[in-house]
Design brief:
Elements lengths: L30 E3 L15 E5 L6 E2 L2 E2 L1 H10 L10 E4 L7 H12 L8 E2 L15 E5 L4 H7 L4 E4 H7 L27 E4 L6 H13 L18 E4 L4 E2 L7 E2 L1 H16 L7 E3 L4 H17 L8 E6 L2 H25 L8 E7 L40 E3 L2 H12 L3
Parallel strand pairs: 1-16, 2-5, 2-14, 5-6, 7-8, 7-9, 9-10, 10-13, 14-15, 15-16
Antiparallel strand pairs: 3-4, 11-12
Helix pairs in contact: 1-9, 5-6
Length: 416
Amino acid sequence: AGGWRCAAPAGRGLPARPGPPARGLSAGSRVRARSRVTVPSLALQPPAFGFLFDVDGVLVRGSQPVPAARRAFQRLADGGGRLRVPVVFLTNAGNCLRSAKAQELSRALGLQVPPEQVILSHSPLQLFSQFHQRCMLVAGQGPVEENAHNLGFKHVVTIEALKKAYPLLDMVDQSRRPKELPPPTTGFPTIEGVILFGEPVRWETSLQLITDVLLSNGNPGAELQDVPYPHLPILACNMDLLWMAEAKMPRFGHGTFLLCLENIYKKVTGRELKYEALIGKPSPVTYRYAQYLIQQQAEKQGWKTPIRRLYAVGDNPMSDIYGANLYNNYLKSAQQNQVQAGVKRSPQASCESILVCTGVYRHNANIPKKTEPHTMETVFHGHRDFYFDPSLVEASYIVQDVDDAVQLAFKKENWS
């Protein structure tokens, strides 16, 4: 997938393709327990682990906090409200500013969350400096222009601005069609790429205009001639087909919009839509960026111990669990490459996936206390550019909620 190409920090790049997937974890490595985990005595050593918390379905449901979330963070914080373990909030949401999401989490969890601990689906775009000087069409909801500028993009055009400049393009809704023929558009910049931040409000408008831009090589007012291919670069954030809010059933996510765009483009042109980058969970680019921020937090706190284990807590097997397991495979592959190359090995790192039952994934029966393998999904809801291996949607551990997830990690780390 194009999601592997990234101008990552020096020495922190990702391979062109993931290594061969691990064939699943042993039965003895999976824990399912509804009961509380006994926490050992106080650990005085600096933490060698950190948490990657999904937000929707794990900490909140829509605007409502999950009850277990505050209990979990009471365990994670000291008496002054400061976290004793490095934490990153890793969400595929992208229709807000990083600072706004941090404020929302602060209210939900009852402690101060700085923006530096929040990774939205589009946060790694600040690494893609090769596109920052191009004129980019941005699609999604919320402050898309401000988000783009904060990420380093200098020249952006919104769907609304494009529709206003070319009013004849948006023709599905008859009530919005112009009553008179508008004058020709002049002086509008040529679009040089597309950023898909998240699902838009009016899908028919965005689907039509994005397709127009791709077919016209960035000049949607021109007549259609030869279809350019490869088309303009597309940077897509958030591949979630579904997500969990207050409704009883999951809602369509940006992955559903991408599915529509991909199929429309192929139906019209006979060719595959290609992405310059796919970021947000489950892309390893996003997890690598999260690991980088976790280590930065530890160093800022003066903790000299390297962070060797990440605990990724999520509710969606197809994004949270798949992404954590895929990144764990990447870490194993990178360590094997170091050995083969004769390079001095860095401390062995791992990414453990923990699935909670408060969001997209719901266990129909009581979670059995015995340990056994379990495949959560039979239908692949992931993006078409990510290969499917059933072992990648098998969580290392399944627990009831995020408080149980924190206790489980504390027990494994002999931490209080």
